[in-house]
Predict the structure.
Amino acid sequence: MNFHPFILPFAVGAIVLFVIIIYKYVSWIKNLDRKQKYFVNKNMFTFKTIQAIGEVIREALIHRNIYKKNPVLGYMHMSLAFGWFLLIVVGKIESSFYAGTFFEEPWLAIFFRYFAKEPHNYFMAAQFTFIMDFLLLVVLSGVFLAIMKRMRSKFLGMKKATRHSTFDRIALSALWWVFPLRLLAESITAAISGNGGFLTGSLGNLMSGLPVQALELPLWWAYSIVLFAFFVALPFSRYMHIPTEVVLIFLRKWGATAGEQYSGFSDIQINACSRCGICIDACQLNFAADINNVQSVYFIRDTRYGKLTDDIANNCLLCGRCTEACPVGIETTLIRQQLRNKAEIPGKHYYDYADTVDCESKPEVVYFAGCMSHLTPSIIISMKKIFEAAGVKYWFMDEEKGLCCGRPMRQQGFVQQSKDLISKNMRMIHSSGAKILVTSCPICYKSFRDEYVLEIPVFHHTEYIETLINSNKIKLHNSGKSIVYHDPCELGRGCNIYDSPREVLKKIGKLQTSELERENSLCCGGSLSNSVIDLATQTKIRDHGLEVLTESNPDILATACPLCKKSFVHGNKAIVQDIAEIVAVNIIAEKQSKKLQLTKNINEFEVNYK
Amino acid sequence: MKHWGFKISKPRVLDFDTANLDAYNRLIEKVPSAHRCLMCGACTATCTANLHTEFNFRNCHLMFRRGQFDGLAEELDKCMLCGKCKLVCPRGVNTRAIIYNLRIVLSDLNYKKIES
Ligand code: SF4
Ligand code: SF4
Ligand code: SF4
Ligand code: SF4
């Protein structure tokens, strides 16, 4: 049997790792919420599993997403993950060929060169040696980049690298040493027995002057001990993300998404965070306001180690920029919302004082302006004008006495209060019997779409105006003004509405692009979700945003959210208007357009007559 | 709009020996802008909850500042955190953050975080 006591640390480490990981995964999976379990059971034995395997190869091994965001960082992850993976797989095949059986000692592949010293005559021995050396070189290049990243994060185009916990440090140091030690150990053995390839063999030749016999065993011991350290520290360090990302990809493909409450799936998500730090660079609190301890990577880390404070959990705009940027696809904003959740008092109702009204007028459309729109009356006036111009029978649900949609409560973690508001509003919407619900506020819109149970479709007013234009219910004249559009967080990243506002604006003016738009658009700073920052910080975020948006000096800065409008207006940098306002001033009133048509007809007639 | 704070209030005696003024300082630590409030009442004039009921944030804030906590928790439960007050405040007071923090401090439940 190929055995030497130096394999013991490795073997013990591997067993410990295996046991801890299985224990953790079983308890997390047991803790999935009902919906997540339902989807997992439903989709486990479908084609989705095969798709998940493909995604595991693309993301967990090749790290295509990181590669797309930052090629050098992507190469680093790929060389470490994919390189190591291939080292294991090819090493296993090689040792199986060598032993002539697939069931050789499990450690043989890991310490292969030590045990396989005699001249090689197994199948393709030379090729294997070459491939293994090449793979080792690839992994070493990744290690080199990782060390460079630690020393100078700018080297990899990152503005900020993340800070470390103790376990991280152990695991990280071990990881740095694993492959150099493997290289040295294999090279020394190559110097003794001449079994190395282009890398280990040449290095062995160089080292042949050293007391190789005396160095050989200590190096293999060191290699094994470092592996032990890495394995044992892994489940408690950031490197837990390596196995967890695979689990996450499967669960996600099967249909699991973050629910209302923290669950086992949230645990899996936060453990899948590699602390790559990409989210730090995406966060406006970092680059516009210099707050550097609240970003997703930090709150995830704090949550993992049970150190999350209210101030960190609450200091976030929930803008979703980090979620968009995260290469692992962690639902950072939703998890933060779950962590803000407060205890509930069963049966308690909070808003029984509210005067809710039923609608008797049988309208086609229910219009819900939203609290914020009531602070920007011009949006409401414009919407009224648009409804009237289109001849739509509508009911303005919160004209006199509205209730909040419930989302601000939900974002602050008061789920029960939010549900209370939702049920009241749903009852009113229902009473109208209308066919669609239109709202002017993206915050309400998101809430209507995600939290309400409605039988009728919900439109944000930009979408609604687009349908009015397309069905020729309103006609617009092109003002020729240059317009830059700002994507509100909740409408863009929140609800994926990017095109409707642009289609509408193209009909009214010259739509210009800005540097950061669509998925990358900035938050106006006014977000209600952050209950920690003060006005001065908000102002910094707003001013930075304005700078980016008004780069091209547009005539109008258009937005589709009353809150964004409110924020930007105070920046005094451009004329800020909601799409509804721009549309309303450019509507060609029905009568007038008939008159125009008549004049045109007469003109044509005259031309033909002459 | 009902009662936004400038009606004649019941006579009230403030006993500085028993009033808990310390709590306000703790609030200021969390929400420094709170001390900028000049009690103008704009927040209450715009308040969504105030359209339906006699809920007066300005008054709640004043009571808390004076160390009078009676019934304040239930009163604050009427707020919907909609944020209008924060947007209209001429002094840039983060009213919403005040309400959020007061709720957590004053509630019997203490709104403990759900153990994850
Ligand atoms: S949350 Fe995503 S982007 Fe941020 S450090 Fe973790 S993996 Fe990277
Ligand atoms: S949601 Fe926005 S504010 Fe919050 S951490 Fe992510 S990028 Fe930063
Ligand atoms: S609007 Fe501002 S300054 Fe005026 S009472 Fe309310 S919090 Fe105070
Ligand atoms: S956040 Fe509360 S106090 Fe402020 S306006 Fe809304 S309901 Fe009124």
